[in-house]
Amino acid sequence: xxxxxxxxxxxxxxxxxxxxxxxxxxxxxxxxxxxxxxxxxxxxxxxxxxxxxxxxxxxxxxxxxxxxxxxxxxxxxxxxxxxxxxxxxxxxxxxxxxxxxxxxxxxxxxxxxxxxxxxxxxxxxxxxxxxxxxxxxxxxxxxxxxxxxxxxxxxxxxxxxxxxxxxxxxxxxxxxxxxxxxxxxxxxxxxxxxxxxxxxxxxxxxxxxxxxxxxxxxxxxxxxxxxxxxxxxxxxxxxxxxxxxxxxxxxxxxxxxxxxxxxxxxxxxxxxxxxxxxxxxxxxxxxxxxxxxxxxxxxxxxxxxxxxxxxxxxxxxxxxxxxxxxxxxxxxx
Length: 333
Description:
The chain contains eleven helices and ten strands. The strands form two sheets. A six-stranded parallel beta sheet has the order 1-4-3-2-5-6, sandwiched between helices. It has a four-stranded antiparallel beta sheet with strand order 8-7-9-10, with helices on one face. It is globular and about 75 Å long. It is of the alpha/beta class and about 325 residues long. Residues about 245-260 and about 330-333 have low confidence and may be disordered.
């Protein structure tokens, strides 16, 4: 399809609108993860709607020593990929279009949730992110805006801002897209050397280890509830890979579903091993949090959670996460 490249909000506002407008916000250097967002936007907007992809490297999101200057700018390739994925418009404004008076004096503040995890590691990052998202929502005027779940804390904060400040837009989260080896797609992956990439696989490896441990515990608990409290119960539990010592009927019956502590321990073991690799993985955080506020969950927690990790490999900082559900006696989400 023909994709129109625009650089001013006036040009975008002048376009005739029929159906719903869906917006995908990016900082460029588009990859298959972005393409998935765009294709999802196309499906939600429908044949009569419009898909707008924004390409803007937001200076407010980069702190001292971060990679603003070396962040990849590939606009021609971005327009091509956006069009192939179903975008009608690529909106690529200059800095002075988004911030016409220079750096804004009035900004969105992320609040307590914005000071945790990513916010603690990158002070001010979420204030800058929310400020530009608010600006771009006003400039593009969408009905729907889509964001990747790989940036789970970002997505949660955008949803909170839209709710708290009464933005008239629907926020849609799209699942993380991974490469064949499990590494979450990111524009920063291109910075990794082959050896660094091998180490970086520990991020997704740790998440999958936590997920597997969660699934095994949920299966054990579900099996314990189904089998009578007899010798057959212990045999049934042993059959799914648990030792007889771990098959005590009372202990299993009263155990916390899914065991958050065990999930954390399984993930951390993978990360600890990666810290001894060459090059090593340098862990920033591993957290198992409530997605409503990104505080750590307790052992009695039930409901949806996010297992999140951030680390550096060489000079590249990477993040990843997976959703889990505790207390449902089923496999992880």
